[in-house]
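Check my protein:
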Amino acid sequence: MKVYTSFEEVDKDLKALRLQKDIAREEIKLNYHNLKDDLGFLNLVGKTTGYILKRALALKVARKLFGSK
């Protein structure tokens, strides 16, 4: 446990703690907005479409390489 010898020390630590709290709050907000964007309808549709197209292209290339129909 820290022992304070002046009110200035207490004020300094309180200010640092407030700033840490504010930074943590802003990080939470940023993470929330990023998650909201990542789970957005258009983003999910775009990622799903991209995944399907990539798999279809890979399958088509594999069929041409190995000669199966």
Notes: Residues 1 and 62 are 66 Å apart (CA to CA). The radius of gyration is 27 Å.
